Amino acid sequence: MLSRKASTIAGIAYIALVLVLSVFVGLSCALLLSQAVRNSPTRNWTRNFNAVVIGAAYAIVAVVSIAFCLKRRIAVHRKLQRISKSYRMLGKADVPKSVYRYMNQEHARACLIAYESQPRDVSQEGWGRPGSKYAGVQFRSALLRTIKDIDQVAHQVIPRHPILRPHARMLHHFRFILPLLPRDADGLTALHYYDSAIQLVRHASRECTEEEFAIGLRYANEIKTVLDDCRLEMLQESYTDLDRVHTDTSTS
To answer: Which secondary-structure segment (H or E) carries 45?
Structure first.
């Protein structure tokens, strides 16, 4: 937007400059011609050599100026036409050898800097280590995103499932799917462990570790797997009921 405004202002300024110069040149020509007429012995245009010289000089200046402007315009247009409109890689023939050599050196230097600046054997708290399966994953946000995924599947299994509230405990929000989940030897389900992981990432002053994130993600996947199995079983039963109704209708 700024470049377009600047080009518009530059074009208007150029036209104004041309008009002002044309007016002043025309006035000077008219004044010189009138002076040539006043100084001639006959005081008219007949056989007035000075008027002819002045008119010819201004005509030559006008022709040369117009020719110079047209030449410049055509040269710029031709140079712009040579620019490729599609992307293509520069080769040795497109630039001088010194420029091509400098471009290769700078490209190699940039690649080397980018390679050397990559982190190695380091880890940032709350993020996956480079080179691991959790590389580039922020544990807190990734684990919190699983809440919406589980909530969507829970609404498919239980249409009247409560609406998700921002700071609700997982044990309270998913209390209706608790009977669907198997219990371990301690009498706890995957939802209990998942609730502990969510409470940790929500309220802990520190970032969760990769091990804690893996545990929370594992139990989140277990809950989602159980809900998916229930949804598929419900769909299969509905198809069976539809087939039975269709068969009874055909028999009657």
So the answer is: none
